[in-house]
Amino acid sequence: MKGGRQTDFAYQAVYRYLTHLISEVGTEARVKLPSLRHLAERLNVSISTIQYA
Question: Mind spelling out the 3-state secondary structure of the chain?
Fold first, then answer.
């Protein structure tokens, strides 16, 4: 996970990644977030970590 601090837990980095994705879209557009499986593969964490975040 790029840009994450090494002292963070994985779920904290996932949370920041998701909030960044949401803030990039803005309020006008409707865009689907990636699936749990896709996020887990992309961020190299388990699906349960994604769900926890």
Answer: CCCCCCCCCHHHHHHHHHHHHHHHHCCCCCCCCCCHHHHHHHHCCCHHHHHHC
The model carries a pTM of: 0.71
Residue 13, burial from CB neighbour count under 10 angstroms (0-12, 13-18, 19+): buried
The predicted-structure confidence for 13-28, as pLDDT tens digits, reads as follows 999 999 998 888 776 7
How far apart CA 9 and CA 20 sit, in angstroms, is 17
Cα–Cα dist 30/37, whole Å: 21
CA distances from 12 to 26, 28, 39, 52 (A): 22, 27, 14, 9
